[in-house]
Amino acid sequence: MKRRRKKQNIQRSYICKIFGLIVAITVIAVSGGILLKRTIMESPEDTLVEYMNHIEKKEYEVMYTMIDSDEKVYLTKEEYIQRNSKQARPGAAALAGGRGYGGNHQGGGAANFRR
């Protein structure tokens, strides 16, 4: 009698673990699919408009997260925020992300954005 009950408890435990694992995998897959769809559906123009909206709101930390990781090698978050906050005036070319300020690289000063 005790063995049967113990065996049933072990089986229930395994079933709960398997069910939990299936739920976790499903949640991860759905979340990943939503993020992937957003990334694929977002055009470069949408990304630029979003970036420009952050300039108007002076959301420099969010802007920094939008620039390409290759650009972040040349400019820390603090430097980026400092430079962009100085340039943030209506019509300013605050779009220059990363190393584009001095013209030291090819690309003419425009930031590379992650989509």
Q: What is the gist of this entry?
A:
This protein is mainly alpha-helical and 115 residues long.
SS-based structural class?
mainly alpha
**Quantity of strands, as a count:** 0
The N- and C-terminal alpha carbons lie at a distance of 61 Å
- What order do the SSEs take from the amino end to the carboxyl end, as H and E? HHHHH
Number of helices: 5
Identify low-pLDDT runs: 92-109
Helical coverage, percent range: 55-70%
- Largest pleated sheet: none
Shape: elongated
Computed CA radius of gyration, to the nearest angstrom: 24 Å
What percentage of the residues does DSSP assign to strands (E)? under 5%
What is the residue-mean pLDDT, rounded to a whole number?
76
Describe the fold and architecture.
By secondary structure, this protein is mostly helical. Helix content is 65%, strand content 0%. It is built from 5 helices and no strands. The N and C termini lie far apart (61 Å). Mean pLDDT is 76; it is low at 92-109.
Features:
5 helices; mainly alpha; 115 residues; elongated
